[in-house]
Write a structure and sequence with these properties.
about 80% helix
Length: about 220
């Protein structure tokens, strides 16, 4: 509007005073109307963006086959604790793209959250079969194996997780706990030391590390 206004002002200067007055009034009316419409659009858009869910729903009306939007909306529902709607959003993403590995991983996280280990493992393994470079999915599958006391499988997944994302201190923590459960306290100590070098503010892990050191 600013550029257009400057050009119209230069054009008006070339007309007689009477014509210029009439055109100025007309231009002012049009400009006022345009600003009013813009203001209404801004208000409506702000309503759409009042929270993440309304933003995603509004955007999906214009891009109904955007799998990333469905994934992000599912994440928003998950963070709100609404696992039913989170699942629906992830499943919608998979309807559009059946090979969307991250969606399978997030569905696995819902099942893990619910303690449904069979379904969690199935979806984590499906995600990894589609994309082996997802560190959080490898970590989550490691959690499943740890709960099932399949420690060798858990260690394998957790090592892959830290290979992909060395700063993921949660994987180092779980590795430490698993090595301690199998009696390998030197290795458990090394894992927790690595975790604390990444995230020093972990008083529980620091205390656990001291316990493991006394067992060596």
């Amino acid at each position: 509007l600013g550029i257009l206004s400057a050009r119209i002002i230069r054009l008006l200067a070339s007309y007689s005073s009477k014509v210029r007055a009439a055109l100025t009034f007309l231009f002012a009316s049009v400009l006022l109307a345009a600003l009013s419409v813009y203001g209404l659009m801004t208000v409506e858009r702000n309503k759409d963006w009042k929270d993440p869910i309304t933003f995603f729903e509004s955007t999906l009306r214009h891009s109904p086959r955007n799998v990333r939007l469905y994934l992000n909306m599912g994440n928003a529902y998950f963070n709100m604790g609404d696992l039913t709607r989170a699942m629906e959003s992830y499943e919608k993403a998979l309807e559009i793209n059946p090979n969307y590995a991250v969606a399978y991983g997030n569905i696995g996280s819902i099942y893990l959250n619910q303690g449904r280990l069979d379904e969690a493992e199935h979806n984590f393994r499906r995600a990894i079969s589609l994309n082996d470079n997802l560190p959080i999915v490898h970590y989550s599958l490691g959690v499943v194996y740890d709960r099932r006391r399949r420690y060798d499988d858990a260690i394998k997944e957790l090592e892959r997780s830290v290979e992909l994302l060395p700063q993921h201190y949660q994987s180092w923590n779980l590795l430490g706990r698993i090595y301690a459960r199998t009696g390998d306290y030197p290795e458990a100590t090394r894992m927790l030391e690595k975790s604390l070098s990444i995230m020093p503010d972990q008083p529980e892990i620091a205390a656990l590390l001291e316990r493991y050191r006394r067992r060596i």
